[in-house]
């Protein structure tokens, strides 16, 4: 009964959202605003980005934000093919904002950075990302590939060590923290993608939202809502506690969990990763 209700609700969502948008933007067309895709490193604030994009539907003629993210890895742990991902991207209707967790593959880049499109990529301090990942895989997502293994370990400290080093044994494979961020650097080097630090959305929210709106207008489109009102609406749209995966929504919480041993191990495995990302000026942290 409950599953059936939710299935019907999901199927009706695009129609309901479209009707609401038609009433809101009756004088504007949905094909005028540029296509937008919000991309994120997993466990780096993607649902915060989703809420901001949902706020976009209040200030520009977009019908809705797609409910489901476009993923590189399925919930069951299967890596999807480039063709499958591209098919999902092409299926996004005009006037619908897409989001997901996509790698900087040649196929994804070629599709997303075409002229007239707007792209965001959200990433986070690797130390906070690791802490979030361990909590998520251990406590929030029983279907996660690391769920059983993490819960078989004695405590959080042991899990965090594995998250830093990665693992490749008995059919279980997860890359190290340094390898996880190789794709982040590819996005950082890709023209046509606005890369955003999660920390800036938390600590410099107004300025970062302004820059995100500027990115839309760089496409040649003029946002119809006055900027001050647009910022107010976007601020109101951000409600982290409404996310099912919300835990703390803060930056720098890694300090509560990293022991001296974790710090040593991280520096050994990650090398100059934090320096290259701009989170540290040296490895004396």
Provide structural commentary:
The chain is α/β, with parallel strands linked by helices and 285 residues long. It has a single domain (34-277), classed as Rossmann fold (3-Layer(aba) Sandwich), CATH 3.40.50.300. The protein is built from 14 helices and eight strands. It has helices spanning 2-24, 46-59, 82-91, 106-112, 126-140, 147-152, 156-165, 177-180, 182-188, 198-203, 205-217, 227-237, 260-270, 273-277; strands spanning 36-40, 64-65, 70-71, 96-101, 118-123, 167-169, 172-174, 194-197. The strands form two sheets. Strands 1, 2, 3, 4, 5 and 8 form a six-stranded parallel β-sheet that branches. Helix 5 packs across helix 7, helix 7 (156-165) runs parallel beside helix 13 (260-270) and helix 11 packs across helix 12 (227-237). The mean pLDDT is 91.
Distance between the amino and carboxyl termini: 53 Å
Largest sheet: 6 strands, parallel
Question: What name goes with the CATH superfamily?
Answer: P-loop containing nucleotide triphosphate hydrolases
Uncertain residue ranges: none
Helices and strands, in N-to-C order?
HEHEEHEHEHHHEEHHEHHHHH
* Tally of helical runs: 14
Oligomer: single chain
CATH topology (level 3) name: Rossmann fold
CATH class: Alpha Beta
Give the topology, please:
Elements lengths: L1 H23 L11 E5 L5 H14 L4 E2 L4 E2 L10 H10 L4 E6 L4 H7 L5 E6 L2 H15 L6 H6 L3 H10 L1 E3 L2 E3 L2 H4 L1 H7 L5 E4 H6 L1 H13 L9 H11 L22 H11 L2 H5 L8
Parallel strand pairs: 1-4, 1-5, 2-4, 3-4, 5-8
Antiparallel strand pairs: 6-7
Give me some keywords for this one.
single chain; six-stranded parallel sheet; two-stranded antiparallel sheet; alpha/beta; 50% helix; 14 helices; Rossmann fold
């Amino acid at each position: 009964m409950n599953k059936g209700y939710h299935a019907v609700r999901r199927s009706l969502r695009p129609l309901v959202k479209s009707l609401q948008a038609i009433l809101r933007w009756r004088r504007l067309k949905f094909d005028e605003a540029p296509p937008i895709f919000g991309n994120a490193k997993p466990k780096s604030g993607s649902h915060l980005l989703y809420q901001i994009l949902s706020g976009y539907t209040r200030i520009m003629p977009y019908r809705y934000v797609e409910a489901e993210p476009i993923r590189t890895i399925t919930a069951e742990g299967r890596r999807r093919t480039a063709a499958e991902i591209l098919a999902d991207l092409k299926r996004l209707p005009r006037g619908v904002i897409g989001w997901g967790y996509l790698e900087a593959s040649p196929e994804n880049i070629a599709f997303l950075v075409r002229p007239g499109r707007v792209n965001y990529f959200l990433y986070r301090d690797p130390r906070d990302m690791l802490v979030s990942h361990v909590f998520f895989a251990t406590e929030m997502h029983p279907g996660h590939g690391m769920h059983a293994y993490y819960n078989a370990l004695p405590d959080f400290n042991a899990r965090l060590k594995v998250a830093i080093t990665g693992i490749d044994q008995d059919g279980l494979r997860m890359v190290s923290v340094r390898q996880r961020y190789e794709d982040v650097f590819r996005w950082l080097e890709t023209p046509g993608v606005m890369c955003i630090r999660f920390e800036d959305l938390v600590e410099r929210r107004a300025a970062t939202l302004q820059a995100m709106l500027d990115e839309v207008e760089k496409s040649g489109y003029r946002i119809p809502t006055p900027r001050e009102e647009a910022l107010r609406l976007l601020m109101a749209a951000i409600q982290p506690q409404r996310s099912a995966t919300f835990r703390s929504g803060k930056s720098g919480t890694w300090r509560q969990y990293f022991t001296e041993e974790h710090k040593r191990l991280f520096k050994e495995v990650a090398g100059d990763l934090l320096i290259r990302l701009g989170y540290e000026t040296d490895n004396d942290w």
